[in-house]
Amino acid sequence: MSAPWRIGLIGARGHVGGELLRLIAAHPSLELAYASSRARAGDAIATAPGQVFEDLSPEDAAQRQADLVFLALPNGHAARWAAAITAAAPRTRFIDMSADHRFDPDWAYGLPELNRKAIRGAQRIANPGCYATAAQLAIAPLADRLASPPAIFGVSGYSGAGTTPGPRNDPEQLADNLMPYALTGHVHEREISRHLGQSVHFMPHVAAFFRGLSVTVNLCVDAPMTAAQARALYEDAYGSEPFIRLDEDAPQVRAIAGRRSARLGGFALSEDGRRLVMVCVLDNLLKGAASQAMQNLNLAFGLPEDTGLAP
Predict the structure, then answer these.
(1) Cα dihedral sign for 241, 227, 229, 204?
(2) In terms of DSSP H, where are the helices of the chain?
(3) Same domain for 123 and 136?
(4) Strand 68-71 relative to strand 108-109: parallel, antiparallel, unpaired?
(5) What range defines the domain where residue 180 resides?
(6) Are strands 201-206 and 151-156 parallel, antiparallel or unpaired?
(7) Statement: residue 311 has pLDDT above 80
(8) Residue 137 half-sphere exposure, CB side, CA atoms within 13 Å?
(9) N or C: at which end does the chain have fewer Cβ atoms within 10 angstroms?
(10) What is the DSSP letter of 221?
């Protein structure tokens, strides 16, 4: 395979599908092979002149040539598409945007800042969840210093609830409101715990803004540290990362809407130096989904990780 690589997109109707289409169009080494959406079949694709959305079955997609396929589907639907396409075209690469393969050791876990070596050249990549990305970035530099499970308070914009109408994306129910949900056992709680090798407690909420999320993370450490020591650990971990920015103050959601980077900051310590509270914010549709998937695509194809992206 050589550039330009042909890219298939299954599940193009949703918010993440739209972001992926824009990123594919902006990438110098990619071209869109097809975009499947039953709800939008026949509509013109604004980012790909001359192409329309198609209503493809797994068997239809298996007959279409693509070097990599994004599976931007609801949880529980990715496996049959991957199986059908692989049966017809075994060399096809996949990036699954759902949670279906995040616990599967046969799929590389696509959080580049923490798992870059496994992603390079990978044929099958499981893109992380948005909350799981933010929480792991916040916890990882201190993962071997923890005295107890981290507590993660998360708030997401309502785009995270998808396009299917429901209470968590209903502007009337969200107006002047903060809506908690899945306060134990959320799939991202299990995902974070699995990939950090550390139990965590995660409490998600949704608010009335559209895009972006914030996690406030409480970390109890095994020995006292200073704020300078804590920040130094994060500088060592992320100082050279193009898609992570470290702030002195706690970052805010409005700072990252529409951006491809995560921002971490706060670094507030208790008086005894054993409790660190910090904040990570990112755009749930970009660094929490589509632009992170493009980082993974670049690594899979051996390209510079920031190709087609700007922090």
Answers:
(1) negative
(2) 15-26, 58-62, 78-88, 112-119, 130-139, 171-174, 187-196, 227-238, 290-300
(3) no
(4) unpaired
(5) 130-282
(6) parallel
(7) no
(8) 34
(9) N
(10) B
Q: Is residue 46 part of a domain?
A: yes
Kindly report each contact of residues 160-168 with a partner whose C-beta sits within 8 Å and lies 24 or more positions away, as own/partner.
160/130, 160/206, 160/213, 160/284, 161/206, 162/14, 162/15, 162/74, 163/13, 163/14, 163/15, 168/206
Q: What gap in Å lies between CA 139 and CA 135, rounded to an integer?
A: 6
The catalytic residues are 130
Is-contact 202 192, C-beta < 8 A?
yes
Q: Which two tokens stand for residue 224?
A: 């006292």
The whole-model pTM stands at: 0.96
pLDDT tier, 164 (very low <50, low <70, confident <90, very high otherwise): confident
**pLDDT digit string (tens) for 3-28?**
799 999 999 989 999 999 999 999 99
Q: At 35, phi and psi to the nearest 5?
A: -135, 120
- Tell me the backbone φ, ψ of residue 111, rounded to 5 degrees: -110, 95
- Please choose, from the candidates 95, 84, 18, 28, the residue with its C-alpha nearest in 3D space to the C-alpha of residue 57: 84
Half-sphere exposure of 176 (CA within 13 A, CB side): 0
Q: What is the pLDDT of residues 19-54, one digit of tens each?
A: 999 999 999 999 999 999 999 999 999 999 999 999
Q: Which of 287, 300, 293, 260 lies closest to 5 in space, CA to CA?
A: 300
For residue 111, how many C-alpha atoms fall within 13 Å in the half-sphere facing its CB?
Answer: 21
Omega cis (within 30) before 165: no
User: Same structural domain for residues 63 and 184?
Assistant: no
